[in-house]
Write a structure and sequence with these properties.
This protein has eleven helices and 14 strands. It is α/β, with parallel strands linked by helices. The strands form three sheets. The chain has a six-stranded mixed beta sheet, with helices on both faces. Strands 2-1-4-5 form a four-stranded antiparallel beta sheet, with helices on one face. Strands 12-13-11-14 form a four-stranded antiparallel beta sheet. The structure holds adenosine-5'-triphosphate.
């Protein structure tokens, strides 16, 4: 397990990372999500050791991550770093060789990786001749070139078409299946929802919540239901109902009764609604990740989401 403990980093008056602690377990894809300027890149750079924290530490299976250990991490930085004029396959082979592969094994590895990423026809092309999406695929190959022990990927999916997202998702899932701790940042919440088992949400340089996807979805579901019926001002007057709000053409209501009694309150709402007219839908409300994210972050003022 990769563990980040109390990492803090300031840039002048800006507290870009403020007492950041979270875990990246093995066997799960961890999504690192937050708005622009939330502190994701700063945190990832500290994990890699390319940026020194003011305080705090990073450990892998309880051992502090030293320069030597982080050499075996695969990193995809925010600022993409391939040489534009160098041929794609040569470049990935060069990176593999830097990580100890023999020349022949490195060339082999480069070819296999690039083919798996759909770049089999472009092996001999210079990076600058590739489309942006294909350059992004090559960047992913670069992060994987050294057969990394840990993967830290900053926005690996940005600019990829849906087919490439699926391909890269499968490749990453394969690494995770082999026990490699993997964290990636993204703004694409639908994709995070689809790919990630574990989530870390950051805003304003602080961790707002972490947990498995199921835990977060459950924690935010609360005792809420949604109903599709006619005018619904009366719902707020049903004993036990604490809040009613319009939601996607339906009415979402929360119940504050003890857990065992909440369902009975919801049934009472349904009974009264049926007495007033047709009910097109009635179900416990299950948030998706976009809604969890909105509840955790978007309801905060923007200046608290980005540290200035
Ligand atoms: P984005 O999703 O937009 O890439 P992020 O979550 O990766 O954002 P960071 O790049 O970590 O956010 O930035 C966090 C805060 O730290 C921002 O306010 C940013 O302006 C500031 N910051 C980051 N790096 C530096 C630096 N080298 N010098 C000064 N301020 C910095």
């Amino acid at each position: 397990m990769l563990e980040v403990t109390h990492l803090t980093r300031t840039f002048g008056a800006i507290r870009a990372a403020d007492d950041i602690s979270f875990q990246v377990p093995r066997g799960a894809i961890t999504g690192f999500i937050g708005g622009n300027g939330a502190g994701k890149t700063t945190t990832m750079r500290m994990i890699l050791g390319v940026l020194h924290p003011d305080s705090g530490q990073v450990s892998l299976d309880g051992r502090p991550v030293t320069r030597e250990l982080s050499r075996h991490f695969g990193y995809m930085p925010e600022e993409r770093g391939l040489y534009p004029k160098m041929r794609v396959a040569e470049q990935i082979a060069y990176l593999a060789a830097l990580h100890g592969f023999s020349q022949a094994a490195a060339a082999n590895r480069a070819e296999t990786l690039l083919k798996s990423l759909g770049l089999g026809q472009r092996l001999a092309d210079p990076v600058e001749k590739l489309s942006l999406g294909n350059q992004q695929r090559a960047q992913i190959a670069a992060a994987l070139a050294g057969d990394p022990d840990v993967l830290v990927l900053d926005e690996p999916f940005s600019g990829l078409d849906p087919m490439a997202v699926d391909t890269v998702g499968e490749i990453l899932r394969d690494y995770v299946g082999r026990g490699v701790p993997l964290i990636f940042s993204s703004h694409q919440l639908d994709l995070v929802e689809r790919l990630c088992d574990h989530l870390v949400i950051i805003a304003g340089g602080r961790i707002r919540t972490t947990g498995s996807r199921a835990e977060l979805l459950h924690a935010h579901a609360g005792q809420r239901w949604e109903i599709e019926c006619g005018p619904a001002a009366w719902i707020a007057d049903v004993p036990g109902v604490s809040a009613v709000e319009p939601f996607n053409g339906r009415h979402r209501f929360a119940v504050t009764a003890p857990e065992g009694e909440a369902a009975a309150v919801a049934q009472e709402v349904l009974r009264q609604a049926l007495g007033r007219g047709p009910v097109a839908a009635f179900a416990p409300w299950q948030p998706n990740l976009v809604e969890v994210f909105r509840e955790v972050i978007v309801d905060e003022p923007q200046d608290k989401q980005e540290n200035r």
